[in-house]
């Protein structure tokens, strides 16, 4: 089910609700080796979660999908002018219905034509992205801030921009404490 929210009408401040993202290498000293293997991986997170689940049922739960204004840091990462609308999608990546990761994707409207992203529903964006032969991925950035769109806490978030031809999407993934508990990962 797609939930729709009203688009905000107030102007967006250039520094409003921006998250503190840092280059991946700058976060390595603060990160344990088990977390580094998850956060620094450049392969499909969906595939890694399925493997780590050892046969448990994997599911993408759609939390929200709409057109709206991205946060300031998201617009900057995509090179969007402040206040421009984008396609926004928020999901929980679950094993046995328990969220392990929450993700937020942001794509400029001008580059969405023909991508069919609006019809993903509860399918993984990563399963589509990683099948594209010309996929390019920007360097990974990391934050210790919690996901601003989901209440469950977690130790790390990461993001990067994926490009496929003219298409571009910012993918932000926040690892949750539930995943750490299940896999026996340290708090940080």
Written overview of the protein:
This protein has 188 residues and is of the alpha+beta class. The chain is built from 6 helices and 8 strands. The chain has one domain (22-183): Chorismate lyase (3-Layer(aba) Sandwich). The chain has helices spanning 24-27, 33-39, 45-52, 72-78, 125-129, 177-183, and strands spanning 22-23, 58-68, 86-95, 98-108, 136-137, 141-143, 156-164, 167-175.
The CATH architecture would be 3-Layer(aba) Sandwich
Strand content: 25-35%
Compute the number of structural domains.
Answer: 1
Task: Give a count of the beta strands, DSSP E runs of length 2 or more.
Answer: 8
What name does CATH use for the topology? Chorismate lyase
Number of helices: 6
- Shape annotation: globular
Q: What is the mean pLDDT?
A: 86
User: For the terminal residues, how far apart are their CA atoms?
Assistant: 34 Å
Q: How would you spell out the order of helices and strands?
A: EHHHEHEEHEEEEH
Main β sheet profile: 8 strands, antiparallel
In CATH terms, the superfamily is Chorismate lyase-like
Measured as a percent range, the helix fraction is 10-25%
- Oligomeric state of the chains in view: single chain
Rg (CA only) = 16 Å
Report the top-level CATH class.
Answer: Alpha Beta
Residue ranges: pLDDT <50 for 5 or more in a row? Answer: 1-16
